[in-house]
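Tutorial sheet, problem 5. The two components below are modelled jointly, 898 residues in total.
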Amino acid sequence: MSLSGLTTELQSILGEAHITEQDCRVRIRPGSTSELALCLAALNETGTKVTVLGGGTGLVGGTSADNSAVILSTERLTELSAVDKERRVVTAGAGVTLQHLQNLAQDSDMRMGLDLGARGSCTIGGNVSTNAGGINVIRYGMIRRDIRGLEVVLANGTVLSDLGGLEKNNAGYDLKQLFIGSEGTLGVVAAVTIALHPAPHGQCLLLLGFDAFAPMYAAAQRFLSRFPGRISALEVMWRAYYDACSRGLAITAPIGAAEVYLIVQVDLDDFDKGPVEAFASTLDDVVDGCIAQSARQEENIWAIRDGSEVIERAHPIVHSYDVSLRPQSLAIYVDEITTAIRRNFTDTQIYFFGHLGDGNIHVMIGLDDASAIAKSRLDEAVYGPLTNLTPSSISAEHGIGIEKAPHLWRSRSDNEIATMNTVRRALDPKSILNPHIIYAPRSAWLTPI
Amino acid sequence: MSLSGLTTELQSILGEAHITEQDCRVRIRPGSTSELALCLAALNETGTKVTVLGGGTGLVGGTSADNSAVILSTERLTELSAVDKERRVVTAGAGVTLQHLQNLAQDSDMRMGLDLGARGSCTIGGNVSTNAGGINVIRYGMIRRDIRGLEVVLANGTVLSDLGGLEKNNAGYDLKQLFIGSEGTLGVVAAVTIALHPAPHGQCLLLLGFDAFAPMYAAAQRFLSRFPGRISALEVMWRAYYDACSRGLAITAPIGAAEVYLIVQVDLDDFDKGPVEAFASTLDDVVDGCIAQSARQEENIWAIRDGSEVIERAHPIVHSYDVSLRPQSLAIYVDEITTAIRRNFTDTQIYFFGHLGDGNIHVMIGLDDASAIAKSRLDEAVYGPLTNLTPSSISAEHGIGIEKAPHLWRSRSDNEIATMNTVRRALDPKSILNPHIIYAPRSAWLTPI
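Model answer (structure tokens):
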């Protein structure tokens, strides 16, 4: 079938309003799971490549559509169930934004386990497809942990619907696990049943400054031991990041200057911050610190932590990385890549921040040099040291997309990559779903063209 | 290759001591992942069916080996890493028992998330393969949540090794999820990296009696709201179960007689039980109750809860079920199946107990009638009412094995079952792994022979 013949068929499924053409591509917006299934069946029949688009906030090019004729947007999949307050679950279409779900949860005195900076634009379907992480992973885990049900459409239009939201169901394979974090390459997420959490009765937010990583890490460990299961954020920022974000956002420094900053959020059974204050006063080696005393102070601390857009604007080119390693290896890693980058580049600014509790650090590097060679040298400087610091991953929470595909071999064996492709071929034999996302072994990237 | 030729090859891999013949079957005991891989490659080459055996404590016939020539025991895969105290992880061979890991965790002032009655015999490999649940799911989830890494061997001998134990790794598919809960049909688990939890500073165990389900359920909800994230067990027993177990174990009743019993375990930041005692005194409708004041009292309460073996011995035939539904539907369900069973059988005793927090109830039914017809009518009585109480599952935590295979259609659609088999064929094209475990749609069970 020609693309125009296919377009006619898609129009008959969706109605003309929900299919548009742009730059030789067709953009379709199904309004229900059954429309989505009909569209995919038609695309699969003709072997037409399709790129799945959620909120478009991914950081690794996962929704680039260079080699797809069709872009499938989930924006109209916005059906929502009422919050089930007894079971603490809600069911949402893939196109619902994270923030919308967070607000719904809050209205019922509950909380989403997932929170991240792009909350206002990212969609729950994209969150599922990338197994999103964010700032509360230390308490609630990646979103995988809270996903109680999925409705997914396979490449050939087969609908797998399991939205019941049962906590326990060992009746055969837990197929939904396959679609979480597989970047839309195995099926398209249409709807999600997600577990909510009771809101804590209170919270206490601390910002603490230290003159080095080691005392900061020791303090963090003490918090974890003192308040087991009640630390909901444990974030770290190195000085360059903290300074750039607070300056760029014109936020008056909440505490005096330090080399490494630690954010600790403790969930309280009561509103009483007393035990946390008493504990904080026993910490050694704190250069300066504060316990937020108002919502405004809390907002300021989080604004600095979430201020990475300031850095995006501060340099002609900014490359961002998202690596994972043992938390206790972070200091060595930061030193090693700083040395490697300084050796290769002059006039570079390096920013470190991230999720201390999960060993997940984000690295942003501001350059003047936009060349591919510069990027390649930078990749080697950032990824190279991971080899000697195993276990480690080139992608903690951002996924592979197109940006990280050439480096997948650093974190997955040839056997693992081959098995990924075995599963992918089984579920999408015509390779129509997100074909720009390639999981290939190192040898494939080294083969001369 | 003949079975004797294969036996010779397996002997050369394992040495004669680790291969035995019995009842026309060969039992092999690989001592390492590489031996396991060589064995599977040889078995796959010849298309020889193999049944994987862990501790053999499963309740659904998952390790029955009727149509396998080879039994593969993981008993020698007992390598253990030291506990990583900072990251709170440990790596263990598939053959290590759950209790051994629990003891290791305790020695480091930590706790395994998983606990269940068969702890002394069941192995961690079996726990992974069946996605085990147990009594602490309400706090720690099924074992899936704590699995940080797996080493798995595919049917053809391919080793997938990912034992790093990273908290976050979104580098391509999270393949380990496939092998959790798939009952050894997709690959054989050789080793596991598992997350441990900080031991709570203290615990408080309550046993409360009520005269009906509704006030018991209301009290449980109040505990969950009052101590969010700190309830580590929330178990329910109906009178017949409680009476039979306490009488059978000759345990003096900790509290006066009631219709429904609730066990609540609250994790404490400190050893002070004061807040829990104060809260418990505000509960209405408690017929009688106690807060355990000694380790002995705690043991007695748990002995009653874990006393199901008493019931196994009390009747000529006992059929056990493990269903999952919304916690708020449990009372209706109990009434419905009691009525249905009483209608079909005289002289039957029905015992209900289970995990209230997860909506997972175990039903044990003592009969005199060992016939297949009786079993079939009982299945219908227990499973039938689930249809109108969706979401529900015929297997909350025990898996499918052979016992539940004819009922899989009640909990999974034809599309889901077909997709399970697509994945299974892709990873085990010769169907050598646990061939007695069959995932088939309803129509397959209805086809005349």
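Marking note: The mean pLDDT of chain A is 94. Full credit if you identified this.
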